[in-house]
Amino acid sequence: MIETAMQLAHEGGYEAVQMRAVAERSDVALGTIYRHFSGKDELLIAGLVVWLARTRRRIEAAGVKGDTPEERLSGLLERSARATDSYPTLIGALVTALGTTSPSASPLKLEVEREVQALVATAIGPGAEIDTVGVARVVGHVWSSALTRWVSGLAPAGSVAEELRHAVRMLVGERVSAG
User: Fold this and answer.
1) Percentage of the chain exceeding pLDDT 70
2) What homologous superfamily does CATH list for 2-172?
3) Does the structure show a pLDDT above 60 at 176?
């Protein structure tokens, strides 16, 4: 079901994700989908959670390149942002779904936040004297804002990576003391 919703979003955007179409392509009853998800927003956000979790597990297994927390986090986020550039229709659908005000979507949105936190913690690495949770929260906000600007046509492709690079430099980069 989740994979089908993501595929429909990739093919035709947010409007293409119709619960009946998801049921038909997944070969499940419509009622079965509604037992698990109240609507397409929850279904798409669940898909984002799965995508982020798979990405995190791949990265944890492969390791993150870079000598400093800044290099590792910048590199990871830039690669992730560049990968999303290939999926503007899907990313637009996910951004739209994340904008839902439905209270039933809140637990899934919190899972998205936890996955972003885990990605940031993986990149920063153990032992760094950095507020990983704080950095993850700000990075999540910057990422969301940059994606929204990109999918709405206010920023060009590649701008998400630049925004994330700038945020990481400000949050994690080496501090130069004056004096």
Assistant:
1) 97
2) Tetracycline Repressor, domain 2 (1.10.357.10)
3) no
